[in-house]
Amino acid sequence: MAVAPVPQRSIAEAxxxxxxxVYRMACQQLEAVPNIIDVDPGIILRLSLPKRSMIVNIPIxxxxxxxxxxxxxxxxxxxxxxxxxxxxxxxxxxxxxEVAALAMWMSWKCGIMNLPFSGAKGGxxxxxxxxxxxxxxxxxxxxxxxxxxxxxxxxxxxxPDMGTDEQTMAWIMDTYSMKxxxxxxxxxTGKPVELGGCVGRRExxxxxxxxxIIEALDELKIPITEATAVVQGYGNVGSIVAQELFQRGVxxxxxxxxxxxxxxxxxxxxxxxxxxxxxxxxxxxxxxxxSEAEPIKNEELLTQPCTILAPCALERVLNAENASKVQCKIxxxxxxxxxxxxxxxxxxxxxxxxxPDILCNAGGVTVSYFEWVQxxxxxxxxxxxxxxxxxxxxxRSFRKVRKLATEKKVSMRLAALSLxxxxxxxxxxxxxxxx
Length: 435
What we know:
By secondary structure, the chain is an alpha/beta fold. It has helices at residues 8-13, 21-32, 41-47, 96-112, 133-146, 166-180, 201-220, 238-247, 270-277, 298-301, 341-349, 357-360, 363-377, 383-408, 412-431, and strands at residues 52-61, 67-76, 84-90, 118-124, 156-160, 228-232, 251-257, 260-263, 294-296, 308-311, 330-332, 353-355. α7 (201-220) packs across α8.
């Protein structure tokens, strides 16, 4: 008896990823692309599901002698465009659907920036703040061991993300190198400069966001010294965005991190704030308690009146409930997926200039590409070269996206998605479908 084929849309909807609202959001964005570009529906279907996914159990010995198990993920959205590329995040709420969505967005980022990478992402469901340095090292090394069969400098290259840093990448590099018998710096990016890392990599995402913001200010004819900014998140991305904008004359009026939010309508001195965050007595390295600003509720941060709002933390923080209260002229998405489709429409209808995440925060993967190339060639650039090339590629892609948005009379987000998807879809079409 013949079995009726599964309707195409239901394949993605019935997958194990579909329980995640972040993954459903990524698929919803993808489904809008055929309205703008002519693309094979079969290729869109293939792109709605990851190429390869791995879920691993990570048992480690804790400092007290007990054994705990953590769940880890690595998702490779595509392998069509080259080695898959994407960060590794440590976060207690991470799940397979979120990782799959982030991997998909990474594919579009690489496409927009015209990088020879495909999209990937990894994660471990853990709060890194609750682990000692030794426990984090054992967790990282065991995770690397468990996914060893699907990573490699020409297969899948990891980088830091939320909850991970240069040290995490150094442990991964060392573990992989020990397994293959020689030093292999190109297995990861975002590692210490002493191990083959690229100068300027840590600041690259925030700098890329800043370049996009300045371009938007120029287009809107807003003098940079008259602009105000609110930044959510004070990690590698948010802190650099705040610092770069502050150095250019933008008044930073409010900031937030995982512990709370602060505000000073006269402006926050970022240099003084950074000294406070770095104090040995500030064990959590938080902005909370900074004496030159007043505390505010986290839910008030995103609705502060400002020129520039830069969410640089978690996904889906702007939603149907709070989008109508947002009072910014430019939304610069330093985080991945900070705006839900419902909020996107509300903000667009209100005339907010949205710089979408897959363009705005693509500076990180771009300089990761620079690092990977330098490691392969064993020929290293100085920071001036790195920053100049990053700015060139970011502005080229920004203007390409803006041009398509203007010509097609669509949002910057849809224009960016269309360019990213088109590159991957064209490569899939030309390579064909293996029997």
